[in-house]
Specification:
This protein has a domain at 226-420 and 467-536. The protein is 46% helix and 15% strand. It is built from 17 helices and 10 strands. A 10-stranded mixed sheet has the order 2-10-3-4-5-6-7-8-1-9, with helices on both faces. One of its GO terms (molecular function) is hydrolase activity, acting on ester bonds. Residues 526-537 have a biased composition (Basic and acidic residues). It comes from Bifidobacterium biavatii DSM 23969. Residues 340-391 form the GPI inositol-deacylase PGAP1-like alpha/beta domain.
Length: 537
């Protein structure tokens, strides 16, 4: 059975000293040079086998007879067949060693982000070029994008044997940030069309455009859903979000909660959409720390995590961000849980959940001690998260959603980004997701090189599917962790320190939108006014 695997690259995080970085780079170059020598040896052995074959073919053959006893043999023939086979085997062995050394060099480069600056520069150049094209010639840019997407769909579908439109995302992934930036300029008006080219580190105009669109769509959304948010604590009839002491375990809990509330898996908890989890951990010194688990968009008619709420929390205006229903809902859940102002908090979210986590970290920094934000598939590059908060972002290069901020994430000591690239593999142990909903990647491989070079996506479809599913982000993080990256290890350790200790409680909160307060639920009086007080002053 065919499957999918993810290869990760790493940017940002705590950098190496210049001397250490150069030492790793020198080692990578040495491995490349030695690999080239082994490939040359492979070519030499292959040439020797060919020469022997030609020599054998050019000989004048005579009848071979077994000499009688006492007769002297005047000539003998070389064992050409054995020699040719031996040379061919040596050629293959040398080529294999060269490939392994190339793999080692590539792993070293990815693990230590040795060419991060060059890769970032190329990506900015491409984004800037696509943005300029989208501004100057939008019709031709749209036509070209359609043609590239169509070619990708046709090629991928032909290889797969059936129509699959997802390949359109894969073929255009290199242009997505630039296209989003260009579109935002048109939304905001042409009067500032030249400015996006001046700074490609920020998704200029994207957050501005999101705020403008949110102002238009919010009245429509309020008319449909109502603007009254009710946040209630709900009881789970089964364990969904378990105790966690690592990023990988927290990502698995996020996936379990996301898929349970959507009905993709059934753990028997009876939790439904619009639900987040708040966990309190007790440190050895008796102090408390908190982990907030926030799934993504569910699209339900009365959920604060509907589709249009994404626009509000991507706005450049902090008041507008915090009036977004999903951000209000999580802030209210944190208030009801009783999180103290000085108690360490980590937030982990997928898609819209990650945007909410970034919004909370950016706009409630003076109310809570937000120490770490973990996002998966979330466009959060434009959120003004304080440098005191560590951010770990996982993005798949062709999922589109993560590119909707129109910019790469900041590459700083406190902000680490893991980018995954999915490829097909004919070796998989994917099987089914286990009965308890477990979907942790990392079952092991027969070859050390494959285990480090790529990580299997557990439970992936045999056909190409959108890589926005959390299982792809889980595989991307596993692959990045296996590389032994100093930056990844530092972020992992920081996250672990926050939730170090014993899990004391897991509480679930559900948000519901309505036109009038729900009579079945009692909320703290003026909770919305309290949440927004800092912006009204």
């Amino acid at each position: 059975m065919m499957g999918w695997q993810v290869t990760s690259t790493i940017s940002g995080g705590q950098p190496y000293a210049v001397a250490d970085r150069e030492e790793y780079a020198s080692l990578a170059r040495l491995l490349d040079d030695v690999a080239a020598d082994w490939r040359a040896a492979s070519a030499a052995w292959s040439a020797a086998a060919l020469e022997l074959a030609q020599h054998q073919a050019s000989l004048t053959w005579c009848s071979s007879a077994t000499p009688d006893e006492g007769t002297t043999v005047s000539h003998s023939s070389l064992p050409y067949g054995a020699l040719i086979q031996r040379c061919s085997d040596l050629s293959v062995d040398c080529a294999t060693i060269g490939e392994e050394l190339d793999t080692l060099s590539a792993l070293l480069v990815r693990a230590h982000s040795l060419y991060e600056d060059n890769e970032a520069w190329v990506r900015r150049l491409v984004t800037m070029t696509v943005t300029a094209a989208a501004i100057v010639a939008p019709q031709y840019t749209a036509l070209g994008t359609y043609a590239v997407a169509k070619a990708g769909i046709l090629t991928g579908s032909a290889a797969e044997g059936k129509d699959n439109r997802i390949y359109g995302l894969t073929s255009t992934q290199w242009a997505q940030e630039g296209l989003v930036r260009g579109a935002s300029v048109w939304v905001n008006g042409l009067r500032r069309a030249s400015l996006p080219l001046l700074n490609t580190d920020q998704g200029y105009g994207v957050d501005d455009a999101a705020g403008f669109l949110a102002a238009v769509t919010k009245p429509i959304q309020d008319a449909k859903q109502g603007d009254v948010l009710t946040v209630s604590e709900v009881m789970a009839e089964a364990v969904v979000v378990k105790e966690s002491h690592s990023v990988a375990e927290s990502l698995e809990n996020l996936r379990r909660l996301a898929e349970e509330r959507l009905g993709t898996i059934d753990l028997g908890s009876k939790l439904i959409y619009g639900t987040v989890a708040v966990q309190r951990y007790r440190h050895a010194d008796g102090s408390s720390a908190w982990l907030i688990t926030i799934p993504g968009t569910d699209g339900e008619h009365d959920s604060p995590f509907d589709w249009l709420q994404n626009l509000e929390i991507m706005s450049d205006d902090p008041v507008q961000r915090m009036t977004g229903d999903s951000a209000r809902m999580v802030a209210e859940a944190m208030r009801q849980a009783g999180i103290g102002a000085d108690e360490p908090v980590a937030l982990i979210g997928h898609s819209q959940g990650g945007i909410v986590a970034a919004t909370i970290a950016a706009d409630l920094a003076d109310q809570y001690n937000i120490q770490h934000v973990m996002t998966a598939g979330s466009p959060v590059a434009n959120h003004p998260i304080p440098s005191t908060t560590w951010v770990t972002s996982i993005e798949m290069d062709d999922e589109l959603v993560a590119a909707l901020d129109g910019a790469p994430n900041p590459s700083t000591d406190n902000w680490l980004t893991i980018r995954g690239h999915a490829t097909r593999t004919d070796v998989t142990s994917q099987g089914e997701v286990s009965s308890d909903g477990s979907c942790l990647p990392g079952n092991g491989f027969s070859s050390w090189s494959r285990g480090f070079a790529a990580e299997e996506v557990k439970g992936a479809s045999e056909d190409k599917e959108i890589t926005h599913w959390l299982k792809y982000h889980q595989a991307a993080y596993k692959n990045a962790s296996d590389l032994g990256s100093h930056a990844v290890n530092a972020h992992e350790e920081h996250f672990r320190r926050i939730i170090d200790g014993t899990l004391e409680e897991t509480r679930y909160y559900q948000g519901t939108m309505s036109h009038t307060p729900l009579p079945s639920t009692v909320m703290a009086p003026d909770s919305d006014r309290i949440d927004m007080q800092r912006f009204d002053e």
